[in-house]
Amino acid sequence: MPEVVVIGGGPAGLSATLNLARALVDVVLVDASRPRNSATLRSHGFLTRDGIRPTELRTLAKAELAAYENVEHLERRPVTSVRPSADGFDIEVAGRAPGEQRILSAKTVLLTTGLTETLPALPSIRSYYGMSVFSCVACDAWDLRGRPLALIGETADLARRAVHLARWTSDLTVFTNGTPAVDEAEEPALAALGIRVERTRISDLDGERGTVRAVLLEDGRSVPIDGGFIRPEWHVASDFLDGLSPQRSDDGFLVTDDGGRTSVPGLYAAGDIVVPGPQQMIIAAGAGARTAATIVDDLQTAHVTPLRLTELT
Ligand SMILES: Cc1cc2nc3c(=O)[nH]c(=O)nc-3n(C[C@H](O)[C@H](O)[C@H](O)COP(=O)(O)OP(=O)(O)OC[C@H]3O[C@@H](n4cnc5c(N)ncnc54)[C@H](O)[C@@H]3O)c2cc1C
After folding, report:
1. What pLDDT is attached to residue 304?
2. How far is the CA of 87 from the centre of ligand 1 (A)?
3. Mean pLDDT taken over the chain
4. 16: alpha, beta or left? (left if phi > 0; alpha if psi -120 to 50)
């Protein structure tokens, strides 16, 4: 029986697993192997790995984990259920073929399953997403700096995101796609920064070979752009938590303490699924490492007062 099962093999789960392995913890990493950032060719902002392909980062991390005998890494194996048991948790892992399903038991489970996202419902959006239309401003705005850009979204934070994005371009149009995402009070503030607001519904994007060239509006107009950002809606997929209801924020993210402990004893979480912050790989990897440190200490000090996070070195 492993001491810890880590569910999700993105930067958070891989980093947590590495640090657990080095603390001599028997750990199983279970990954559905469907990374959200697979839409993009290059990832930016990860120290020493700026511009790396997302798949390559995972390959490097997997090679590092392979050196540790106390790690078992199950790939392309989604967890279909995590249930409380008398001794911790039972974790049901789907097989790649019928009959390969496995049930793991562990006292400690770390969730690093990341987010799923709903993109604005534009017919061609997938042709451009990750190539010339992105969601992470911190990750990708540098490559689009100084160009005519679009920001497309339907949520109440759109105006604040536009102000943020205006750091990288002075030619920005915010598209609300017919929704009241930008309110009347926000529009003059955006105008003062030179940011245009277009409220007409969008029919589609236009361009070629992944390079977006225009936003097409339902009234027949075409607004030329040379790149853009969308504001997806993010979801924490947790339908596999069976009989477990860790505390969540109003928008559905898991709530943890500073060490990654959820409200369910023995259940930890790290990375994008945790209340909120910049969604970046290095931050997810750091959160994975920090949560691994908490888990190691909790395993070690189950019956005494644990060290505070600031005391862990
Ligand atoms: C298009 C795009 C471009 C991006 N570009 C950048 C960039 O340039 N730089 C940057 O720093 N960040 C970038 N990001 C953000 C970055 O990818 C995330 O912040 C980061 O990957 C989050 O790491 P994570 O480990 O929390 O989750 P993820 O990387 O999402 O990993 C979660 C893993 O859990 C697995 N999983 C989910 N459910 C289950 C289950 N039931 N059982 C088993 N496994 C499961 C998934 O298949 C996946 O492998 C980008 C994101 C997107 C969408």
Report:
1. 62
2. 30
3. 95
4. alpha
For residues 262, 264, 268, 271, the Cα torsion angle rounded to the nearest 10 degrees is -40
Q: How confident is the model at residue 181 (pLDDT cuts 50, 70, 90)?
A: very high
CA distance 258 to 72: 27
Q: How far apart are CA 259 and CA 309, in angstroms?
A: 7
CA–centroid distance, residue 290 to ligand 1 (Å)? 18
Question: Cβ distance 282 to 136 under 8 Å?
Answer: no
Task: Spell out which residues line ligand 1, taking CB within 6 angstroms.
Answer: 7-13, 30-37, 39-40, 43-46, 78-79, 112-114, 130, 135-136, 139-140, 237, 240, 271-272, 279-282, 284
Question: How many CB atoms are closer than 10 A to CB 256?
Answer: 23
pLDDT per residue as tens digits for the range 11-41:
999 999 999 999 999 999 999 999 888 888 8
Which tens digits make up the pLDDT trace of 83-118? 999 999 999 999 988 888 999 999 999 999 999 999
Contact 77, 103 (CB under 8 A): no
On whether the CB atoms of residues 16 and 106 are closer than 8 A, the answer is no
Q: How far is the CA of 279 from the centre of ligand 1 (A)?
A: 9
Cα–Cα distance for residue pair 292/126, rounded to 1 Å: 35
CA of 74 to the centre of ligand 1 (A): 17
User: How far apart (Å, rounded) are the C-alpha atoms in residues 39 and 77?
Assistant: 20
Residue whose CA is at the smallest distance from ligand 1 atom 41? 79
What are φ and ψ of residue 140, in 5° steps?
Answer: -125, -10
